[in-house]
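Hi R.,

Here are the chain sequences for the assembly we discussed:
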Amino acid sequence: MIRIEKRAVLPRYHHLIAALIAFAAALGLGSAIFIVLGVNPFSAYQAMFNGVFGSFHSFSEVLVKTTPLIFTGLAVAVAASMMLWNIGAEGQLVWGGIFAAGTALYLLPSAPASVLIPMIIMASACGGMMWALIPGLLKARFNVNEILTTLLLNYVAIIYMEHLFYGPWRDPAGFGFPGTAQIPEAAHLIRFLGTRMHLGFPLALACALLLFIVMKKSSWGYRVQVIGSEARAARYAGFSVSRHTLLVMALSGALAGMAGMAEVCGIHYRLQTGLAVGYGYDGIIVAWLAQLNPLAVPFTALLLGALFVGGEQLQTVFGLPSTISLILEAALLFGLFGGQALIRYRIVFPGRKKEIPTASSHSGTTS
Amino acid sequence: MTEALVSLRGISKQFGTVSANLDIDFDIHRGRVHALLGENGAGKSTLMSILAGRYRADSGTITINGTSVSFSSPASALGHGIGMVYQRFMLIESMTVAENLLLSAHRRIDRKNVALTIQETAQQYGLDIDPHKYIFELSMGERQRVEIIKLLLLDAQVLIFDEPTAVLTPPEVAAFFSVIDTLRNAGKGIVFITHKLEEVLKLADDISVMRKGRLIVSTRADRESLSRRRLAQLMVGRDVVLQVVKEPVEPGDTVLLLENLSGNGSLGSVSFDDISFEVRRGEIFSIIGVAGNGQSALVEAITGLGPAHSGQLSFCGRTYTPRQWLNSSKDTIAYVPEDRYHTGSVGTMSIGENSGLTRLSAYQNGIGGMFLDRKQMLNDCAAAIKTFNIKAESPDDTADSLSGGNLQKVILARELSRNPRLFIAEQPTQGLDISATEDIWKALLECRKEAAVLLVTGDLKEVLSLSDRIGVIFNGRILEIIDAHDADAVGRVGLLMAGVSS
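And here is the predicted structure of the full complex:
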């Protein structure tokens, strides 16, 4: 009889294997959908692949999408490593964008780039931080569920941003289009090699590296790890859960805020609709695909970015809805969780069982 | 002997590369108590979990009355009349006895007559219980009775008890034994997992001893030839010294002094009231009591994890109000908490990382202690593995991969390395096997040479083996402080634990 049994030891590269299972599951589900839509899955995937790797320019577009995903992925990951669910990266991103645009347009409109860019980066981090500290405080002080508060505050942030660019911050010379005026050139993030890829990308990578070091090498990271894994042990060891809740939410918000800055100062050059397109929510998938490891976040962000660009390609080539990439995204996440569960088991075939030495093979020994 | 009610033949179960059970035969007879002895990790619970339908055996057969059966779940085992009372009771605390019983037996008892049905069954077996009480109001002994009634309502013919006396007071243990007698006389088959030898000799009709996944001995109880010593030897595979050698130590300065300390503890725990005692360097002062009599809140107050509201506390010659004490430094107080799995350690982290949990400052470097030397933690842990004879592959093993005894030694090593003035150990050997218990007792006795030791436990034997002075706590108050050398007074401890003061 073929049996399924639980593994005692996880295989060495179990994270990678789970990710591969996830990828295969997504490809499989995607194929099924393409067939239903009457498109040959192979040509569909080929089109997606070409859309991503077809040219240097197309790949640079992937990196453009990857940039905010790294930031929001890190934001979700740092919170989740303390078992805090920050579903509010979207709203924090929006506030990062608002602070970035506000600094560039109204606070320091004539500052040189060398002053303005660092100020904008800091301002955006503060914006996101401020927004994340609301649920952070509620959680730390009154134990209010952060999943609800972070999520609901997203809508408040988006509506407030709309109020700004429809109202007080609307570009007077904008022919009535909703949006602020363009930010001064000094506030534009440098772009590389004639593409839309900008300074935000290396900045995001640096943040990933920095966060990794903080989590693995600092005493703060250790405490966060303990609190996230076993709150009672943290209390026993004398770590303040509420203080760390505030700090982690602040850091999470700051990272998400920088995603907003990257979009405003690297791509749109103004506050407008299209800033809140869901990078905050995608960050949840990025973080969990990366198993909350900051160093893996850039790679999973890249994967998702490629999926989005590839999805757009499906639209141009086959006239398929580009939202198909959202389905693939969902399949990836389900595949990952399924893969993680599957990997804990193995299939045992009969008749091939080796004699396994037992602990008592030398009976009567003392240890 | 009559035909066995339940027979297990050739049962094997493998967890990864470890054989938890290897080719085990085990019989349960009507009207007989079968004691299953063994150290922790010997495979007793695995075997019984297979019988109770929680695990599925890799190979082997189970027959009931000669018919071969296989269970897919505990419910299907119960359907065949086999039920288990687990060490951790499976009851919903916020519900009443009747509601709990209805949950599991709703098909068998009429909703309207629950209370009546319960009382009938209870009286039949001498299990006194009020069906309308909430579980959280009940003592551990009463909760156990609810679990037994649960199985009886489901018409269980075989009742398996996993370490049933671990949480009971001495009088409750006596009551439990008489319940077992009633069940035996009613023709039930009973399995009794334990590592307390006296209980085996007192109760068992059949005795089986397991060691490292194998059945070493299975025999009818013959009280002449199976001495305690022989059983212990069978269990651990070598001669065991059950008595630790307690070198006399001259008591030194008073390290901890409590004066009329009262407090409420955290949410839901029993409060403590007007507690006064001192602990001196060179002595082990024990607080003994049945769980849930205010010990947890008292320990929290002393370790500064919880508040006290009145009285005062002196530590190393300085006197503090409860509020001052909360905010003072407690670096020289080591504390081994009761819950070694979720409080004393972090299961998912390595034992190396765990050995830094309460002494981060020793590993911090850089500006403001920003960085943490995790490598040094691992090195220290590797040293502790050697010194304390901890069974672990390396400091990288996760804490939850260790057995209870080995994990406790990791925690003990960490707390001892803080060079404490006061060492607090809470239920330090609960659920541990003989050899781990012995190691931990030795370490505590060794520790008292340098520090004051406060032992909080419910284990009478532990107290009598280790203490210099004993305070008995009941219902939040210390009833009496007894000199451990006063043999007459020591005899009262069991009664005092049950609240009977002369």
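Chain A touches chain B through 34 residues (CB under 8 Å). Residues 113-142 of chain A form the longest helix (30 residues).

Let me know if anything looks off.

Best,
T.
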